[in-house]
Amino acid sequence: MTDTILSQTEDRVLKITLNRPEKKNALTLAMYERMTALVAAAQDDPEVRVVMITGTGDSFSSGNDLADFLAHPPTPGDSPAASFLHCIAQAEKPLIAAVNGLAIGIGTTLLLHCDFAYAAASAKFQLPFVNLALVPEAGSSLLMPQLAGHRKASELLMLGEMFDPETAREVGLINSVCADGVLEETALETARRLAAKPPEALRLTKALMKDTSGGVTERINKELGHFAHRLESPEAHEAMQAFMEKRLPDFSKFS
Prior knowledge:
alpha/beta; 6-stranded mixed β-sheet; 3-stranded parallel β-sheet; about 15% strand
């Protein structure tokens, strides 16, 4: 039986590949469980600095496998789908997506929890929940209006029509549109650049960006607290020493 989720770690980048091309990478409960396990394990693995998700064939993911989900409906508790969504929402290390084709439903909403996302020129996106008599998932009813504005989010979530990579870029779902042949290398290049950064500084920066509590004054004070602590860190010492010695810093020894 073909492994529906492939994984490999290279250059401190964990690459997770959805590998069910005959079903356009529709997600089963078992696939959710495997991805959750991989992303969760990566958070404590010093050999992994960045997690990247992509798909095989002509699809990133066509959404949930309906037969599997009708037989085992997801719940707000500890269902495989809910566990995966909470896992990527709470991931401390950078997440990157390389959208290589169809991105339907969860194939689009999971991008809201990625720090970087790139799409092939042939990619197509859709949020078809209302069309299926359902409601948005993965926090998209909150995050899409924040990202795209209420009216554009209403268009994408309420009409549920397919949209192209340029629209995805314009509303902030992806960083850029790539030629099909260079998509994966473009995403991997960003992943490698992130993997070379000081890991704790990167983790704290992501945590600060995802923390929506408090106002500007509270945020300034929180940043200053981290800033003062970071000045005394071995990572900062290496960065400043490298600057004075006119060389590239080496953060490979930090976890």
